[in-house]
Amino acid sequence: MIHLENLCRHFEVGNQIVRALDEIDLEINQNEYVSIMGVSGSGKSTLLNILGLLDTPTSGNYVLSGVSTSKMNDDEMAHIRSTKIGFIFQSFHL
User: Fold this and answer.
1) N or C: which end of the chain has fewer CB within 10 A?
2) pLDDT of residue 19 exceeding 80
3) How far is CA 58 from CA 22, 29, 52, 62, in A?
4) Is residue 92 domain-resident?
């Protein structure tokens, strides 16, 4: 259902590159439950934003239900967000 391969998300801060996610591999199959845990700044929110199609990776591949998200346009991602993905926010900015 969810397959990440060599997923990276990098941000430019001034003249430096911050590697929020660096070569993440993950497979979550249908009916599996997962927990994402880590210290502050470890990339949890960045990963959830990508999984929820709110952000896109810098590189790597994210396959959702057999379809590469890199081939999806904004309307397709919005449709999936509204029909297939649920969000529970602890705070408005998460």
Assistant:
1) C
2) yes
3) 10, 24, 15, 11
4) no
3-state secondary structure of 84: coil
**Helix/strand/coil (H/E/C) assignment for every residue in 4-50:** EEEEEEEEEECCEEEEEEEEEEEEECCCCCCCCCCCCCCCHHHHHHH
pLDDT tens digits for range 33-78: 999 999 999 999 999 999 999 999 999 999 999 999 998 999 999 9
- Comparing C-alpha atoms, which of 28, 33, 39 is closest to residue 62? 28
Report the alpha-carbon distance of residue 30 to residue 74 in Å, rounded: 25
Q: Is 74 in a helix, a strand, or coil?
A: helix
Which CATH number does the domain housing residue 6 bear? 3.40.50.300
Nearest to 9 by CA among 54, 68, 62, 57: 57
Q: Could you tell me if 28 and 1 are in contact, meaning their C-beta atoms sit under 8 angstroms apart? A: yes
Number of domains in the chain: 1
Instruction: Give the range of the structural domain holding residue 39, as residue numbers without chain letter.
Output: 2-83
